[in-house]
Specification:
The complex is a heterodimer of chains A (569) and B (310).
Chain A lengths: L1 H45 L10 E2 L4 E6 L14 H10 L4 E3 L5 E3 L2 E6 L3 E6 L13 H12 L17 H5 L10 E5 L2 E5 L7 H4 L10 H6 L17 E7 L3 E6 L14 E7 L3 H9 L5 E4 L4 H6 L4 E14 L10 H9 L3 H9 L5 E2 L15 H4 L9 H15 L7 E5 L3 H18 L3 E5 L2 H10 L4 E6 L7 H4 L16 H12 L3 H17 L3 E13 L3 E2 L2 E2 L6 E2 L4 E2 L4
Parallel strand pairs in A: 2-11, 15-16, 15-17
Antiparallel strand pairs in A: 1-2, 3-4, 5-6, 6-8, 7-8, 9-10, 10-11, 12-18, 13-17, 13-18, 14-18, 19-22, 20-21
Helix pairs in contact in A: 9-12, 16-17
Chain B lengths: L1 H28 L13 H11 L5 H13 L14 H36 L4 H15 L2 H19 L12 H31 L2 H9 L3 H13 L1 H16 L2 H6 L5 H10 L3 H29 L1 H5 L1
Classes of the chains: A alpha+beta (569), B mainly alpha (310).
């Protein structure tokens, strides 16, 4: 018995080792086959576009490699709405005016300009050329601007041209595009007529919607303008020479650019990666594959361990709680809104809850980086503040309850986006208003488009909302709560507010104009139209060999136009 | 056999039609508005955009137009990438996903069969324990964790060596594909290992193996002819759906490794309510899945004569 079982085991062992050997042979075959397959796949992959591997900073070729957040949907400046398109276009195109490294407005295609009460004149430079060598003329701007306001183009940024005479009427289909108040007096003189006085028009023309488009080229693209590298003409510091969709782009120094000495120092910028994953970008940066990346607060310890130089910048946008001012809503009651205003404190939100070191606590609709008459707007017009006062808040809530004639407050709807930061903020306010006021808020977290849709339909009491600037003037925020602004999704409506906004839009005297913004700021606080939450900022790191890289509050979020490589230290 | 194939193909077409219809009506009933954007637009602009995408027509008309275009293989223009046709997006990005997918499937199959056979032969001994531990781990840990961890280890590897051994992200060369493909195939490999192990164990103790042994057939021959060949059948059955799942399910891996595959478009389109891209990619993926299942069913007949008999 004993012997028999031993024999069984030995036979089994022999079998096992022999089978194992056979398996080993198969494994070898499999590996060989796999290697052959990998080789074939590599050849195939090469034909689908290649990242290349030149590293973040290529000193020899004076080139850098960067990552883009998203693939630009298309590069037609007249219709672009997203941040990635803006970044690319700001490097390959140039408007009448532009911004220098220090955010000052400087001449672009226009060498000088004049803004009057009824209009403006731009004198175009001789040496501004399209990438095919043809000069940029006033007619290119006329064609482009008519195209923007033409309702057939369906440009979502057409509103930014409304200060030009007849623009709004044309955009609404009431007048033909030819009636737009812009004329090419000669090849190099552009005349603009205003709908109403527009003292900030110089800042508007720096925006990408105002970039020129050449008619004959546009017509040759058969409606595919901006879809590919050969479907565009360039007049900026860089040319787009390669665009593998969803994968890579190559921006090469434009030999025809008129201002080569002061802009576009790098010979080549490669956008080799497209990913929204910030962690992946951090890994690429660590590995020396990309020149810069932004950091979220959980990544800061890693960055500090690596002894990187961490920079901060404001991204320009302001986030706030917006009330629903429609008739049937409880949030229409001013005492109710005042109660909420007195029961919260944005510093606690920013410093204790969100803990993003680059964020600033919100104090006003007008962020800290905006300029007033001569210095910071917030310094010239200190925002009115109310201290956290729970006692007083409860009194206002009681007043509101009596005015509304209800026994107790029903559950209210707090609409928010689905990003981690907005969910965190929403939960904070939910428990804060519960604790301080005994109000029950239900969080309605929605994806971006659905949140916007619900805002438009007014399906909320309170919504976490925000606004980013289009141009470098207080008005980019200032007219948000006018009764006619489609953006005013809470439908706040006050004749006094409308009056001050009209003044701010058209007043030529800078002092009086800023005073009007001061009044708007006061009203926003007194009427409790919104509750400011925070101004968003970014922590970011840049390869130490890359100098003069810019993150901007207005314009492209990242700007390499003035960047250069310096390996001295 | 031919009749069988034709029958399966017809079933496949009906399935694809059903997928197309379900996606169409699901998309049009999802709350939210595909055209809405950060900057509010005027009524005229909106009307023009609606006309461009045919959203101004009644839903039934839209459905008829959609089906008619679908038959001609035209999925329409993307809502977000306004100058690109969905066909272009699929044509440019599916090959990337497919190449990555094929490699991942190869890793998964080779690994799954070899490890499965190995664990069965060495059952309840050290190789079995080690491999099964890894298998359970790879099934339990979600792929975004594995992807992030492996990318992090690549960074450390490159740091230690002092040059780029394997790139941490990107696309275009063998080096770019190896790690993402392994990460992508890992889950399937683990699944196949378990499948192979249990089916192998069943066969090892079966009658015909014992008969072969008693006849004195050489062990290597028993293993190759009688055990492996029989045990591999269930693996092949699940391979079709597995290929489709891997090729279409690479979103996380594509995101982390910045690979320009179709998965990104598929997922982002849902978030952005890009109707045409969602419908295009879903129908395409659906058709691909159906096709792979048919292929495997037909292949099965060639590999296992018993199936053909029935």
């Amino acid at each position: 018995m004993n012997e028999a079982s031993t024999t069984a085991i030995t036979t089994d062992d022999r079998f096992t080792s022999s089978a194992g050997k056979q398996l080993g042979i198969y494994a070898l075959y499999a590996l060989l086959a796999l290697s052959a397959l990998i080789y074939m796949l590599a050849v195939a992959a090469g034909s689908t576009g290649s990242t290349g591997a030149s590293g973040a900073i290529d000193v020899v070729n004076n080139a850098i490699t960067i990552a883009l957040r998203e693939e630009p949907p298309q590069l037609d400046a007249n219709r672009a709405t997203d941040a990635s398109s803006h970044v690319v276009l700001a490097h390959v195109m140039e408007g009448l005016l532009g911004y220098d490294f220090d955010n000052h407005l400087v001449p672009g295609v226009a060498e000088r300009w004049e803004i009057r009460e009824d209009g403006a004149t731009f004198w175009l430079r001789e040496d501004s050329l399209w990438s095919d060598g043809v000069p940029v003329t006033a007619a290119d701007f006329v064609f482009s601007w008519r195209r923007v306001v033409n309702p057939d183009t369906a440009s979502q940024y057409a509103f930014i041209l409304y200060p030009i005479k007849n623009a709004e009427a044309i955009n609404n289909g009431q007048l033909p595009a030819q009636t737009l108040g812009v004329t090419a007096v000669s090849e190099r003189v552009l005349e603009v007529e205003f709908e109403r006085p527009t003292p900030y028009f110089d800042k508007l023309v720096a925006y990408l919607t105002y970039y020129p488009v050449r008619e004959d080229f546009f017509n040759s693209t058969n409606g595919r303008y901006g879809a590919d590298t050969d479907m565009m003409l360039y007049n900026g510091a860089y040319l787009l020479t390669e665009w593998v969709h969803g994968s890579t782009m190559r921006w090469v120094k434009n030999p025809n650019y008129w201002n080569k000495e002061n802009k576009g120092y790098l010979d080549e910028i490669r956008t080799a990666y497209i990913t929204q994953d910030v962690n992946a970008k951090l890994n690429m940066f660590k590995d020396g594959q990309i020149a810069d990346t932004h950091l979220l607060s959980p990544m800061l310890p890693t960055a500090m361990e690596q002894r990187w130089q961490i920079d901060r910048s404001m991204d320009g946008s302001v986030f706030y709680l917006e009330f629903n001012h429609r008739e049937d809503r409880i949030s229409r009651n001013k005492n109710f809104r005042r109660a909420l205003q007195l029961a919260q404190d944005s510093t606690e939100l920013v410093y204790k809850v969100l803990k993003e070191p680059s964020y600033l606590p919100g104090v006003s609709l007008f962020p800290a980086w905006l300029t007033g008459v001569s210095e910071s707007f917030q310094k010239e017009y200190p925002p009115p503040m109310s201290k956290l006062d729970v006692q007083q808040a409860r009194e206002h809530l009681e007043l509101a309850r009596r005015e509304l004639g209800i026994d107790k407050f029903p559950p209210l709807m707090l609409l928010t986006g689905d990003t981690p930061i907005s969910l965190l903020a929403a939960e904070y306010y939910q428990q804060l208003f519960q604790k301080n006021l005994g109000l029950e808020f239900r969080i309605d977290a929605q994806i971006f488009k659905q949140r916007l849709d619900k805002m438009r339909a007014g399906e909320f009491d309170l919504v976490l909302s925000g606004w980013g600037p289009d141009y470098n003037d207080v008005l980019t925020y200032g007219d948000l709560f006018s009764s006619w602004n489609l953006q005013n999704r809470g439908r706040y409506n006050s004749p006094e507010m409308d009056l001050w906004i009209r003044v701010a839009q058209s007043e030529l005297d800078p002092q009086k104009r800023m005073d009007a913004f001061g009044e708007i700021q006061r009203l926003l606080h007194e009427d409790v139209v919104i509750l400011p939450m925070y101004e968003r900022g970014f922590s970011f790191v840049v390869d130490s060999r890359l100098k003069n890289f810019r993150r901007r509050s207005v314009g492209p979020e990242v700007d390499y136009n003035y960047a250069y490589i310096d390996v001295t230290n | 056999m031919l009749l069988y194939t034709i029958k399966r193909l017809l079933q496949g077409i009906i399935t694809v039609w059903f997928i197309a219809t379900a996606t169409f009506f699901a998309m049009h009933n999802v709350p939210g508005d595909p055209l809405i954007n950060d900057r509010a637009m005027t009524a005229t602009t909106r009307a023009n955009l609606e006309a461009k995408y045919g959203l101004d027509q009644p839903v039934v008309t839209q459905y008829v137009i959609y089906l008619r275009n679908l038959v001609q293989g035209d999925f329409g223009i993307s809502f977000t990438q306004e100058n690109r046709e969905v066909n272009d997006i699929i044509r440019e990005h599916f090959p990337v996903s497919a190449i990555l997918g094929i490699l991942a499937v190869m890793f998964a199959t080779v690994g799954g069969v070899l490890f499965g056979a190995l664990t069965a032969i060495y059952r309840n001994r050290l190789p079995d324990y080690v491999i099964m531990f890894v298998v359970i781990l790879s099934i339990s840990v979600p792929s975004f964790v594995i992807a992030a961890l492996s990318q992090l280890s690549l960074v450390s590897l490159n740091n230690v060596v002092g040059r780029t051994v394997l790139p941490v992200a990107g696309w275009g060369t063998i080096q770019h594909m190896l790690v993402p493909a392994m990460v992508l195939g890992l889950g399937t490999m683990a699944y196949l290992t378990r499948l192979m192990r249990s089916s192998m164990l069943e066969i090892i103790s079966s009658d015909f193996v014992r008969t072969a042994k008693s006849k004195g057939v050489p062990p290597a021959r028993i293993f190759a002819r009688h055990q492996l060949r029989n045990a591999i059948m269930p693996v092949i059955t699940v391979l079709g759906p597995a290929i489709a799942a891997i090729t279409t399910g690479g979103f996380v891996v594509e995101l982390v490794f910045a690979i320009p595959g179709l998965g990104r478009y598929f997922v982002q389109a849902v978030q952005q309510l890009d109707y045409t891209v969602i419908m295009g990619t879903t129908v395409f993926y659906g058709a691909f899945l159906v096709f792979m299942v048919i292929v495997v069913d037909v292949l099965y007949g060639f590999i296992d004569p018993r199936v053909r008999m029935e």
